[in-house]
Amino acid sequence: MGLLDDKVTIVTGAGRGIGAAAARLFAREGALLVLAARSGTEVEELATELRATGAEAVAVAADLTTAAGAQRTVDTALQAFGRLDAAFDNAGNGLPPAPLTERSESEWDDTHALNLRGTWLCLRAQLRAMTEAGRGGAVVLNSGVGALVGGFGDGAQQAAKHGLSGLVKAATADLARHGIRVNAVAPGVVRTPGTEPFFGSGPEFAALVERSTPLGRPGTDEEVAQAAAWLLSDRASYVAGVTLPVDGGITATRRFD
Predict the structure, then answer these.
(1) Euclidean distance between CA atoms 186 and 61, whole angstroms
(2) Of 50, 91, 103, 252, which shows the fewest CB atoms inside 10 Å?
(3) Chain-wide mean pLDDT for the chain?
(4) Directed axis angle between helix 17-28 and helix 221-232, to 10°?
């Protein structure tokens, strides 16, 4: 049996990076997948790839910064599979490092529109569907190590990620009695297409990651996906309200420089 056998599962931001790795892993673990992203091209290609392996997967293009887009992903799950059991709310974005005093209002708003407001909109739609169905369920938010420690040049995103930790706790307080578990993963530095420009800028960034991470290396998108899969599975049936570091030990130390 797979870790997620027969669980109808939404993955947002599934077109690349951690989202795509999660979709592939969840498919291997038996999930029935709804893959969502702003652009439908990448998720449709991924859904086609997964169906070729025998998995069940559908794609949906949705602007997840809007209530309509968030609801569309849930409606797609209900139409395709008749229910919703789980979700990995992974969609997010970042900014190049800069002091908080140099951030513009538009940068702040754009960061929070997807990382915090968009995640809340997706979570709200998913929790409504799960509550109405009365079957319980599990949701994992993709947060970040910035929800747990401070770091230079990333204040706007850290504020959003701290907000996600609050969402996890509030959702647990509201809905755990319905058998719905909400948790988050908090990745450290993960090598993905989104972070590749930093690694490609020169040896200094890689050296910084090695120096700041007790395990001495960046994480992989697969490692984050594995943690999310466990939290979504019945093996984590008594885990709720947790923001789980997947960070190579960064939060176990005082250094993040």
Answers:
(1) 26
(2) 252
(3) 92
(4) 50
Of the candidate CATH numbers 3.40.190.10, 3.30.390.10, 3.30.1050.10, 3.40.50.720, the domain formed by 8-248 belongs to: 3.40.50.720
User: How, if at all, do strands 86-89 and 56-61 pair?
Assistant: unpaired
Q: How far apart are CA 77 and CA 121, in angstroms?
A: 16
Please report, for residues 29, 74, 81, 127, the alpha-carbon distance to residue 71 in angstroms, rounded to integers and kept in the order given.
26, 5, 15, 11
Binning pLDDT at 50, 70 and 90, where does residue 34 land?
A: very high
- With both helix axes pointing from N to C terminus, report the angle between 119-133 and 67-81 in degrees, rounded to the nearest 10: 40
pLDDT score of 204 = 85
Domain boundaries, given as residue ranges, for the chain: 8-248
> What confidence category does residue 152 fall into, taking pLDDT thresholds of 50, 70 and 90?
low
Contact 30, 233 (CB under 8 A): no
The answer to whether the CB of 171 falls within 8 A of the CB of 243 is: no
Q: What are the phi and psi torsion angles at 157 (to 5°)? A: -70, -35
Instruction: Judge contact between 135 and 82, C-beta under 8 A.
Output: no
**What pLDDT, on the 0 to 100 scale, is given for residue 255?**
54
What crossing angle do the helices spanning 17-28 and 40-52 adopt, rounded to 10°? 20
Buried b (16+ CB within 10 A) or exposed e, 151-187: beebbbbbbbbbbbbebbbebbeebeeeebbbbbbbb
